Each structure stands twice: as C-alpha cells, then as structure tokens.
Amino acid sequence: MTDAKVGISSKKGVGDAMGDICTVNKVFEDGECDVKHEEGQVLLLDFWATWCPPCQAPMAHNQKMLEEHGEKWGGKVRLIGLSIDNDAATVKKHVETKGWQKVEHYHVRNGKCTGDKEFGVQGVPHVAIVDTKGKIVFMGHPASRPDLVKDFNDLLEGKEITGKGT
Prior knowledge:
The protein is α/β, with parallel strands linked by helices and 166 residues long. The protein has one domain (21-156): Glutaredoxin, CATH 3.40.30.10. The protein is built from 4 helices and 7 strands, in the order βββαβαβαββα. It has a 7-stranded mixed β-sheet. The longest helix is centred in the middle third of the chain and has 21 residues, at 53-73. 34% of the residues are buried.
C-alpha cells in the first residue's frame, strides 16, 4: 500500500481579479457560457448544491435580497448560483420548486468548468464577492457576512468592505 499526498490550493484569492468562469452549463437554457464580470457590477458568486442543507438558507436569502432590492440595484448587483450538483437538470428542478429564479443559476460540475477549483471550493456553501472593478474582496462562508445588502451597497458606492475573509 502506498500513501498518497494530496495538495489543495486556490488559484484565486482576495485581491485577485475574478477573471472569467469558463464553460459553465446554463440551467434554464441549453448550452454553455462563461460567467464574466462587467465594470460597475458587484457580483456574489455562490457555490452551492441542492443536496447541501447549509446551502439552502443562503440561496433563499439571495432570492429575497433580489426581490427586495433588485429593482433599486438595477442590474448592478448580480447574485450567481454556481451549483456543484451532478447535473443541471437537478438544479433546475430544485430552483423551480423553491422559487429561486431571480438568482442567476449555472452548473459548474460538468467536467469542463474549473471555477470551483479556481476559487478554492472545498465545501459548500462557499461564496466570493467581487467589487465594481472585478476584484475579489471576500471569500468564505456566507454566514461570515452578516449584512450582504450593506456590503453590496457599500461596494456600489466605491467603499471597501472589511471583516473576516476580506
């Protein structure tokens, strides 16, 4: 028997440019696309799974934030669900059942996308917040950010966010 050594590392971290998350499956349409940041937008990249109990409340909260603030944000805040489920059909059914369609949903565990590895996802939920310039300003568990609405509003105003994970 041989011992195996495994190294886990993240290519992206706080202070790095987000870059593109390439070759994700669309959940509500056929085909693949790249998730890209556009200047002036704040992004929440939420890596999650339908089978993950701790992922459900943050995803419901994402939906609620968009219902309550989406019109005010006017497309300048994008909340993006990046599912690590085995297939996109499972994600689509779950999202429809829960009523979470305001969140942008993509499937990243398709054998082509490496977004979860680039962002150091070792467990879910795992989120990254990206500022208006495309820089990652937070990575970690969503519970580490007690007021995401304030974070997004501050970032839209050009302010920095502080605290654990920033």
